[in-house]
Amino acid sequence: xxxxxxTRINGIDRTFECDPGATLFEVLRSxxxxxxxxxxxxxxxxxxxxxxxxxEAILSCITPAPRVAGRQLTTVEGLGDxxxxxxxxxxxxxxGAVQCGYCTPGMVLAxxxxxxxxxxPSREQIAEALSGNLCRCTGYVKIFDAVHNAxxxxxxxxxxxx
Length: 162
Prior knowledge:
Elements: E1 3-9, E2 12-18, H1 24-30, E3 50-53, E4 56-59, E5 72-74, H2 87-94, H3 104-117, H4 123-129, H5 141-161
């Protein structure tokens, strides 16, 4: 038995069919969202599959796909692209917080969720917000610095809007 689920992904209304027990990760990958990665075999321990659901960072590998019905979903593809990257994406690249890139989409989205709530986070708040996202390449100093720099950039652009 399959079910139809309607949601909004990266600002676009989408409807998909899935089994009631399908994970959001499985559905997103089948729909072509390649930034959503799997690193922990659906245990919810690595953060590589992080997406935003109504602005909250969630782990798509342990989220039932039907849960997103009628809600807003954001993958990293919805933030920016190489021609027009989001300030968070720019800060990660500029700060050397990207090496293999496997964890980066999840880190970027966890950062977005944090900065939407806490525009100028402390190191402790950054550590807490990213605690569910594992990185094996860069260590966390450059990532934390990138989050801090993205916060400053975003705050600066908001100051110019006033």
